[in-house]
Design brief:
Elements lengths: L7 H10 L3 H15 L10 E5 L2 E9 L8 E9 L7 E5 L12 E2 L6 H6 E5 L2 H8 L2 H8 L4 E7 L13 E8 L5 H21 L5 H7 L1
Antiparallel strand pairs: 1-2, 2-3, 3-8, 4-6, 4-7, 5-6, 7-8
Helix pairs in contact: 5-6
Length: 212
C-alpha cells in the first residue's frame, strides 16, 4: 500500500474517492486483524493504509494533566482545501456560557443530537450540511461521550504527510478494547470522513495548489 509521501496525486484521491462502505469494511478488517486480541492490545499506535488513505488507532495519555486522563483515538489525514474547522464534544455544565466563546446553537436541527453535543466551528453552514446526514447523527449518538474534530495534524502522526495537512480526530475517554465498541467508533469516524470529503468533492487539486 502506498505512502502519502509518494506524491500529491495519491493524496488527492482522498478528496475524489471518499470513504465508501466497501473501503470502510476492508479497512476495519485490516485494523481488527492488526489489533489481534484487543484485550491484550497495549494501546500502541496501529496504522492501516488503503491506497492514499491512512487511519491510525492508539491510546494516548496526556502527561501534562492527571495520569487518569487516558483517551482512545482514531485519526486520519484530511485534505481540507477550505480550511474548515469544527469540534463536537459532549455537553457540559459550563455550556450555558457557550455563546461567549462562539459555540453554535442547534448545529444539526435535531433536538436529540443538539442536546448531547456542543459544537464549535468557523463555518456553521458547512457543519449543518455535514450533520444533515441522519445516519451520521445516529452513529455519533451511539457514542455520546466522544469528541470529534478537524484540526492541524500534529506530533508523530504528521511526519509522513505534506506540510499543512489537517486531520480528522475522534477520541473517547479511557482505554477501549472491546471489539464491538472499537468498530462502532470506527464506523462513526469513517462516516464523518466520507461526509467531509463529499462536502469538498468539487474542489480540484489544481485549484488547491493555485490557492497555496
Amino acid at each position: 500500500m502506498s505512502s502519502l509521501r509518494s506524491g500529491r496525486e495519491g493524496y488527492y484521491r482522498i478528496v475524489s474517492d471518499g470513504f465508501p462502505g466497501t473501503v470502510r469494511d476492508e479497512v476495519w478488517r485490516t485494523l481488527s486483524a492488526a489489533l489481534g486480541d484487543a484485550d491484550a492490545w497495549d494501546g500502541a499506535p496501529v496504522r492501516v493504509r488503503h491506497g492514499a488513505l491512512v487511519v491510525s488507532l492508539d491510546v494516548h495519555a496526556d502527561l501534562a494533566v492527571r495520569a487518569s486522563d487516558v483517551v482512545t483515538r482514531l485519526r486520519a489525514p484530511y485534505d481540507n482545501p477550505t480550511h474548515f474547522r469544527f469540534r463536537l464534544r459532549p455537553q457540559s455544565l459550563f455550556d450555558p456560557l457557550r455563546v461567549l466563546f462562539g459555540v453554535v446553537d442547534d448545529p444539526s436541527g435535531d433536538p436529540a443530537f443538539d442536546r448531547r453535543f456542543t459544537a464549535e466551528t468557523d463555518d456553521p453552514a458547512r457543519l449543518a450540511a455535514l450533520l444533515r446526514d441522519a445516519e451520521l447523527r445516529a452513529l455519533l449518538l451511539a457514542e455520546p461521550w466522544c469528541t470529534l474534530e478537524v484540526r492541524d495534524a500534529e506530533d508523530w502522526f504528521a511526519r509522513d504527510f505534506p506540510a499543512g495537512t489537517d486531520e480528522l480526530h475522534l477520541e473517547v475517554d479511557g482505554r477501549v478494547t472491546e471489539p464491538r465498541r472499537l468498530e462502532a467508533l470506527f464506523r462513526a469516524f469513517a462516516h464523518t470522513l466520507d461526509g467531509l470529503v463529499s462536502l469538498d468533492a468539487k474542489v480540484r487539486p489544481a485549484d488547491h495548489e493555485h490557492d497555496a
